[in-house]
Amino acid sequence: MATPIAWQIASVAAIRPETPGVKTIALKLPQWMRHRAGQHYDVRLTAPDGYQAQRSYSIASAPESEGKVELTVERVADGEVSGYLHEVLMQGDLVEVRGPIGGYFVWDAVQGGPLLLIAGGSGVVPLMAMLRHRAAAGSQAPARLLYSARGAEDLIYKDELDRLAADGWGLQVFYTLTRSQPPGWSGYARRIDAAMLREVAGPLGPSPMVFICGPTLMVEAAASGLLAAGIAEDRIKTERFGPSGS
Amino acid sequence: MTMDTVRDDANAALMLDGNAVAGALSEIFGAEMTVNEAECASCGQVHAVGAMLAFTQAPGIVLRCPSCEAVMVRIVRTPRGTYVDVRGAAYLRMPPS
């Protein structure tokens, strides 16, 4: 099997703001390779003095979008790579990347469902790739997304998620806003807890395929809550992100 | 009673998954490694490399067993080369070629 580890120079096809702190960067790749939903790319920046900084960013786009890949990047306070990608990078610029990388935290439509996706903050990005892939592949596998963010303005992809949930193909989306809620908010308004997990996961039966992505402590809480609810450990895949996402 | 040396301190917030170091691992082993399984030499549990606990803030990369938190893999780059210490793994199973 060929290993997709070679670095290549991608060009920035477009940059799109998602929320005040999050942008999506569409890259055109000379050596595009079909990815699997949930994989990431490594991005490497080199300063004129040779100093290099490297970070991993999840792919947001579906594998079906040929020749192109979209990375959604959250601006991290003092982040040397995310700061550059947010403040300096422009359409037409070149950036060094390698990927797609990772074979563990991935979902393919042929695996079917039911699918339980749990996101904290920008942890929604690889899960969005799964949902976009699910839609592009015409999958009707039952799927539920529980998405936790601080406030309504921090929800990435909300319009698209609402559209996907409304198309009648078996996706349901649940939001929880932990810090502030707009007037008339009907979603959850607290951190993910055991009761919320039981409500969201329950209708999917005893053994959904679970993907959890978010800040480390949120992932730990969600995983242990699902284990307590009786979901087997080998059905739960986690992707924690911490300072290496900066 | 389990010893919980990792999760109780500040390291907990810095912990990632084996998946986060997939790029570095594929560079070293020449293959995608995160779906391969490894047996912990301390507790005997078998986990996918992608499910291991990864610490990347140390000088190098440390992968720990998700069951008992023992160190399974250490990777350190030096000017003389890359050191890969897998003493903590009883085995690492690669797929048939």
- What is the C-alpha radius of gyration of chain A, as a whole number of Å? 18 Å
Shape of chain A: globular
The CATH level-2 architecture of the largest domain in chain A is identified as 3-Layer(aba) Sandwich
Low-confidence blocks of residues of chain B: 1-6
Strand content of chain A: 25-35%
Distance between the termini of chain A: 31 Å
Coarse structural class of chain B: mainly beta
What is the 3D form of chain B? globular
| Oligomeric category | heterodimer
The SSE order of chain B reads EHEEEEEEE
Largest sheet entry of chain B: 5 strands, antiparallel
- Which CATH class of the largest domain in chain A is shown? Alpha Beta
Helix coverage percent of chain B: under 10%
Radius of gyration of chain B, Cα only, in angstroms? 13 Å
Q: Write the CATH homologous superfamily of the largest domain in chain A.
A: Nucleotide-binding domain of ferredoxin-NADP reductase (FNR) module
Can you put this structure into words, describing what you see?
The complex is a heterodimer of chains A (246) and B (97). Chain A has 246 residues and is of the alpha/beta class. Chain A contains 5 helices and 11 strands. Chain A is globular and about 55 Å long. The model of chain A has no long low-confidence stretch (mean pLDDT 93). Chain B has 97 residues and is mainly beta. Chain B contains 1 helix and 8 strands. Chain B has one helix at residues 22-29; strands at residues 16-17, 37-40, 46-48, 53-55, 61-64, 71-78, 81-85, 89-93. In chain B, a hairpin with a 6-residue loop joins strand 5 and strand 6. Chain B starts with 15 loop residues before the first strand and ends with a strand. The relative contact order of chain B is 0.21. Mean pLDDT of chain B is 87; it is low at 1-6. Chain A binds chain B through residues 1, 3-5, 40, 42, 56, 98-99, 101-105, 215-217, 220, 237-244, and chain B through 7, 12-20, 22-23, 26-27, 30-32, 34-35, 48-51, 56-57.
